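#structure-requests
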Amino acid sequence: MATIEEAFSRLSGSPFRSKFHLTKRDREYISKKGLEVIRRHAEDFIKERLAPADIPNDGKQTPMRGHPVFIAQHACACCCRDCLFNWYKVKKGRELTDLQQQKIVNLLMAWIEKEI
């Protein structure tokens, strides 16, 4: 996977990825919960929804709204295994390693911190 700076640079060239931003409600939620809680949510979402080798609803598992992490996943192309492959060459059909999951969470949190 790319570094956070490399990922942000590539993502900034995508009109689709660049349109995602946190709403006022998202920012308020982050302020209320704190970044550590948001990180734990991101870890859980990635582990449950993105890390398995076989995801029955792949491509539809990440809502477009409802949680700041979901918005970050779309903004960072970490919303489904197709996007992970297309943007970061992470192969489908294999469970994500702990290191891969950690890198994804770090990218999502960097995006969130940049937005707030």
